[in-house]
Specification:
- 43% of the residues lie in helices and 16% in strands.
- By secondary structure, it is α+β, with helices and mostly antiparallel strands.
- The chain has an eight-stranded mixed β-sheet with strand order 1-10-9-4-5-8-7-6. It has a two-stranded antiparallel ribbon with strand order 2-3.
- Strand 2 and strand 3 form a beta hairpin.
- Helix 12 runs antiparallel to helix 13.
- Mean pLDDT is 86; it is low at 1-6 and 349-390.
Length: 390
């Protein structure tokens, strides 16, 4: 990550947050987030600023310097523009540290797990609980990447509503964004220090200077994309999964490509990278199901639209698969869309459902359902479309 300073071009990556943005940031850092435990373990109540302080302090005790702490992802975008239509889900906190060897990775993991003991409610016999046991109880995901270009680890703490607290420890990371609208990182150190040192509350005329950075490059341009719902990226082949699912999500959320012809060309790279990373049909199904579950909390009604958009993009832009592989993937997407419709229908107590007939080549997704539907349950109505019978 670049530092504040340097030439004029690098400085375009940075911007000082306004008072309103600082207020939103402070509110997010002070909002208690429940961390739900498995089995009969109690729910932890964690404020982001608290866990940052505890983790930072414990790492320092272990001789690991935290260069800075940043808010990343959808929460950072929400701070900069709260009316972008994306909202925010996960709280992505980036700790910039040096990870020179395997031992340091292990120390970081042990520190985070040990910190969870601090957030257990009073009355719990903390001395009888090992940190490693807490991993099974409160950690949803553990990731470690260590290669020539990327050295980082991720510990994601569970939240049943999808608002996970994700602690990411980064030494180096070649690709730090998918699209310009999710490329923002907000440096938290000045705000955290202000809360510890100032006896007076913040105000419009008395608050710390907080700096944001766009990993896309030009901060003003990326913020304009966020405010005007514009999709822009570069080199999607560098993104794990090609950014394909996020791209479809943005489309159904009302975002539009900055350049239609350019984005059509980039779709081919998105699809190619997606099928490189998820080459097996079972892997594709796991990835799609996981994405639908984690990225549409409170917006379940958009899952079908996202799958339909994905179908259209894969159908139009996939050039790297053999014919039968392509048909297999399209059929998977269609069947997942059917499942989503069935789930929606069950909520609204609709009793007539449909399933697609075997795949028919060279038709679009809509016609696939209109022309090739078969009733699963008997229905006395005369149904002429794929829509649920009323």
């Amino acid at each position: 990550m670049a530092s504040v300073g340097g030439n004029a071009n690098s400085n375009r990556r940075f911007s000082v947050l306004s008072w309103q943005q600082v207020q939103r940031l402070d509110s997010i850092l002070g909002e208690a987030v429940p961390i739900h435990g498995r089995w009969n373990f109690p729910t932890l109540s964690v404020m982001p600023r608290q866990i940052v302080k505890v983790v930072q302090s414990r790492l320092h005790e272990k001789g690991i310097k935290v260069h800075n702490v940043r808010l990343n992802g959808s929460a950072a975008s929400y701070v900069l523009h709260h009316d972008g239509g994306l909202g925010y889900k996960d709280l992505d906190l980036i700790f910039r540290v040096d990870l020179p060897n395997e031992r340091t990775f292990q120390v970081v993991k042990d520190v985070v797990l040990d910190c969870l003991l601090d957030f257990l409610p009073d009355g719990v016999a903390k001395e009888r609980i090992s940190p490693m046991y807490l991993k099974e109880v409160y950690v949803q995901k553990l990731v470690k990447v260590c290669n020539e270009t990327d050295r980082w680890s991720l510990i994601s703490l569970s939240n049943n509503s999808g608002k996970n607290v994700e602690l990411k420890f980064v030494d180096s990371l070649r690709r730090q964004f998918e699209f310009s609208v999710d490329s923002f990182q907000i440096i938290l150190d000045s705000l955290l220090l202000f809360g510890e040192c100032s006896a007076n509350p913040m105000s419009e005329n008395f608050h710390p200077t907080v700096v944001g950075e766009s990993m896309y490059g030009d901060f003003a341009q990326a913020l304009d994309h966020l405010q005007n719902k514009i999709i822009a990226t570069r080199n999607p082949e560098e993104i794990r999964g090609g950014g394909l699912l996020k791209y479809c999500n943005l489309l159904v959320t009302g975002f539009k490509p900055s350049s239609e012809p350019e984005m059509k060309a980039l779709q081919k790279y998105m699809c190619s990278r997606f099928f490189i990373d998820f080459s097996d049909i079972a892997e594709q199904q796991r990835k799609l199901e996981s994405y639908l579950q984690n990225h549409f909390v409170g917006m379940e009604y958009k899952r079908y639209d996202c799958l339909k958009t994905l179908y259209d993009v894969v159908d139009e832009s996939t050039v790297c698969l053999m014919g039968h592989e392509r048909r297999q993937t399209l059929n998977l997407i269609a069947m997942l869309a059917l499942r989503v419709l069935a789930e929606q229908n069950s909520v609204t107590k609709v009793t007539c459902f449909y399933q697609p007939a075997p795949f028919v080549q060279d038709i679009n997704f809509s016609n696939y359902y209109v022309a090739h539907v078969q009733p699963v349950l008997p229905c006395s109505h005369s149904c002429s479309t794929w829509l649920p019978c009323k």
